[in-house]
Write a structure and sequence with these properties.
The protein is an alpha/beta fold. Helix 4 crosses helix 5 and helix 5 runs parallel beside helix 6. The N terminus and C terminus are likely disordered.
Length: about 250
């Protein structure tokens, strides 16, 4: 399959990793990794189990901090932020989609999505109105009051995506979003991610599926905690970030 042409990115990166390493006890999960993701990109980070994909996801999502190196998310140096500031950045900038749908039993789709704004200070009626808009955006306007057991796997994942994009975050991190789905439902989810990207969201798909990775405009391959290949660098249309001295610890 031939990958589509990439969308022209804007000048300001939404993700910058420079010289990033992460070590858990004696295990190096990431090793001196550079990666730049510009606004408007759609890309796959691909690699086998143990390659460092989950660690990179956690660092890009500010769920974990690196052992060394520089991480900037939407222009913010993560190392300089307090835990409260980091939580605010995550809430306003990043949407997460996981392989498991994390939908509460007995809770209708509308409320599952609206609960994503539970701590936003918005009244219940506004939360539900925004949730309905998000569900219609992913093609589930006819499933607003269906509970998880009444939804197919693909529909559950679309509910999860609606929850992730509820606040219109500029960055969407999708971790194995088709891993629990059959091929037909998986294709629908990938098509939806394309649509979100075309509407302006930067979408990063973490996957072990080489076919999915090859179908996206940019492919970053990890192996043993290092970037083995980056199709953007191979084309010459991306460049690594310079690591400031203070980022090397």
């Amino acid at each position: 399959m031939t990958a589509p042409s990439p969308v022209a990115p804007t000048a300001r990166p939404v993700v910058e990793l420079a010289g990033v390493s992460k070590t858990y006890q004696d295990v190096a999960a990431l090793r001196d990794t550079d990666l730049v993701i510009h606004r408007g990109e759609l890309l796959a980070i691909v690699g086998p189990s143990g390659s460092g994909k989950s660690t990179m996801l956690n660092i890009m999502g500010t769920l974990d901090r690196p052992s060394a190196g520089l991480v900037r998310i939407d222009g913010h140096d993560v190392d300089r932020l307090s835990d409260r500031e980091l939580s605010a950045l995550r809430a306003g900038t990043i949407g997460f989609v996981f392989q498991q749908f994390h939908l509460a039993f007995g809770v209708p789709a509308l409320d599952s999505v609206a609960d994503g704004l539970l701590y936003s200070g918005r009244p219940r009626g506004e939360r539900r109105r925004l949730a309905e808009r998000a569900l219609r955006r992913v093609g589930l306007g006819h499933r607003l009051y269906h509970e998880p057991h009444q939804l197919s796997g693909g529909e559950k994942q679309r509910v999860a995506i609606a929850r992730a994009v509820l606040g219109d975050p500029p960055l969407l991190l999708a971790d194995e979003p088709t891993g629990a789905l059959d091929s037909r439902s998986g294709a629908v989810v990938i098509e939806l991610l394309h649509e979100l990207h075309e509407a302006g969201t930067t979408v990063v798909v973490i996957t072990h599926d080489r076919d999915i990775a090859a179908s996206l405009p940019r492919e970053v391959r990890l192996k043993d905690g290092r970037v083995e290949h980056d199709s953007a660098l191979a084309r010459g249309d991306n460049s690594p970030v310079r690591v400031p001295e203070e980022a090397v610890r």
